[in-house]
Write a sequence for this structure.
């Protein structure tokens, strides 16, 4: 049989040698109290100076010194942050001011350009109105014609035909005329018809009637009636040229 009593005694002796948890806590408390007492003694001794007498300002502890150092670092960081913020603010304000000045200058230039463009626009409109009136006058002038010039034109053709006389001349439209006349013979009427048909200003010629008879002197004569349509591009004042 195995004897189990011997290990039990050994375990008990080992447990007795180990310090208990309460003993450890009490030891730590005693150490802290001794440190505080020593700090108070040092503070009390430091308040006594052989030369100046008693120093009434208490000496700070290590923890208080550490706190003051942290405060100093935080204050320095805050000061640096404020300085950086002020510099950034100054740069932003300066940039904003320069931008506003540039915008104002550009606005002035734009206003000047708009005024110049407005003046030029008025001049262009005035010139366009003047040109429109000129072209309108030219169109009206070119579309107008002189009745006398047209009558003289056909009269000159009758004179070239010889022994031809126009007795009645009527404008039936802007480009059409109707006239009556007399010739010595039918051959004279045919020749006059040919001259009218080949004229550059005549578009078409229609012989309405022709007759043969005797005049008051009992001489042979031929009467005719023509309906003539002139070309549109030859009706204008500048296009009627009398040919002799």
């Amino acid at each position: 049989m195995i004897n189990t009593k011997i290990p039990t005694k050994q375990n008990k002796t080992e447990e007795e040698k180990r310090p208990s948890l309460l003993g450890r806590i009490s030891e730590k408390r005693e150490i802290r109290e001794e440190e505080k007492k020593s700090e108070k003694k040092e503070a009390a001794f430091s308040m006594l100076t052989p030369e100046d007498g008693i120093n009434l300002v208490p000496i700070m502890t290590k923890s208080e010194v550490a706190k003051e150092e942290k405060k100093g670092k935080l204050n320095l960081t805050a000061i640096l942050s404020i300085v950086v913020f002020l510099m950034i603010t100054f740069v932003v304000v300066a940039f904003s001011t320069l931008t506003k000045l540039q915008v104002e200058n550009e606005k002035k230039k734009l206003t000047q350009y708009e005024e110049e463009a407005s003046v030029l626009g008025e001049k262009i409109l005035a010139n366009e109105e003047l040109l429109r009136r000129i072209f309108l006058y030219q169109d009206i002038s070119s579309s107008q014609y002189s009745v006398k010039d047209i009558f003289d034109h056909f009269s000159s053709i009758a004179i070239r035909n010889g022994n031809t006389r126009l007795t009645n001349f009527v404008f039936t439209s802007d480009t059409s005329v109707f006239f009556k006349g007399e010739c010595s013979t039918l051959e004279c009427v045919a020749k006059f018809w040919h001259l009218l048909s080949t004229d550059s200003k005549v578009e078409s010629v229609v012989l309405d009637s022709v007759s043969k008879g005797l005049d008051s002197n009992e001489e042979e004569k031929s009467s005719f009636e023509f309906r003539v349509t002139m070309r549109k591009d030859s009706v204008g004042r500048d296009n009627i040229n009398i040919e002799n």
Q: What stands out?
A: The longest strand covers residues 202-214. The domain at 147-239 is CATH 3.30.1360.100 (Gyrase A; domain 2). Residues 62-143 form the longest helix (82 residues).
